[in-house]
Amino acid sequence: MSETRGPAYRCLRGMLSRDRRPVVGLYFLDGTRALSATTRGALQLWDTEAGACAGELVGHRGRITAIAASASGEVAASVDERGHLRVWDVASLRCALHLDYSDHDRNILQHLSLCDDGSCGLTTDGGAAAFVWDLRRGRLGQKLELGLPGRVMGTALVCGDEGRVHLRLDDESWVAAPTEGQAPPSPAPPPAADLAFRGRSPRYRAWLVDEQVVLRERASGRDVVTLEGHDQPVLSATVTRDARRLLSGDAGGTICLWALDWP
Q1: Which of 23, 40, 60, 97 is most buried when burial is the number of CB atoms within 10 A of its CB?
Q2: Rg from Cα positions in the chain
Q3: What is the pLDDT of residue 61?
Q4: Reading across the β-sheet that carries 152-158, which strands appear in turn?
Q5: Distance CA 38, CA 150 (A)
Q6: Are 51 and 13 spatial neighbours (Cβ–Cβ below 8 Å)?
């Protein structure tokens, strides 16, 4: 059986971050809207098809370390290196909630994810504990002691009667723990793809190699195509759920939108 060919690629357009600082975060809200984040706290909303900045979400002053959004993409959240968590109303570009942990343990604001409606958030401190945030009341709702065998690399959060946190470890395995009660995390299958990989492709991931972006199959680890065109090291990239668009951001503040044309 012959190996399936990878897609041809085209750079549709290049865009510049407001402060031209390194682009360290990218997140697709849907097929045409995306957020970008820089080392100096610039958080911008992009109309990727028009190639235009649709607005700025102003408040961060330090490097933004994580971005997440609700299922609809109308509520977003972000955390920075200085210990600030902000929740945004995307339509109005307004900061709806600001939690300041700069005088506390900033490590608790890692691996951010939101539940479907954006009313709850989940962060970790890297592996020892997970933190469930009540974003409607603006407070920490619950701390879950984890004691995991590996380092956390990703999170997902399910609220409601079946409330659970899902954590992806550095060996690509998943564990799950209830948001209520004291049961320890246990091995679990990955959560639904729309939750585990919200804002990005469940089948492919973007692997960064200097000025290149390699599209890699998650399951097999096979490299599908290598995208070339940046003249600065690429620091962030993300792929739409249908794997037909890819965003990449580099150290010079340039964001490239790529079209992936599958055979």
Answers
A1: 23
A2: 18
A3: 92
A4: 152-158, 164-169, 174-178, 186-188
A5: 28
A6: yes
Query: Which residue bears the tokens 């409330």?
Result: 163
- 10 Å Cβ neighbour count for 263? 7
Residues 75-107: pLDDT tens digits? 999 999 999 999 999 999 999 999 999 988 888
C-alpha to C-alpha distance for 47 and 31, rounded to whole angstroms? 10
DSSP character string of the chain? -PPPP--EEEEEEEEE-TT---EEEEEESSSSEEEEEETT--EEEEETTTTEEEEE-----S-EEEEEE-TTSSEEEEEETTSEEEEEETTTTEEEEEEE-TTS-GGG-EEEEE-TTSSEEEEESSSSEEEEEETTTTEEEEEEE---SS-EEEEEEE-STT-EEEEEETTS-EEEEESSS-PPPEEEPPPPHHHHTTTS-SSEEEEEETTEEEEEETTT--EEEEEE--SS-EEEEEE-TTSSEEEEEETTSEEEEEEEE--
- Using one digit for the tens of pLDDT, what is the confidence trace for 160-205? 656 788 888 878 788 888 887 667 888 888 888 778 888 889 899 9
Please give the structure tokens belonging to residue 181.
């009660």
Distance CA 71, CA 61 (A): 27
Q: Which residue has the tokens 């045409």?
A: 32
Question: Which residues lie across from 130 on neighbouring strands?
Answer: 124, 144
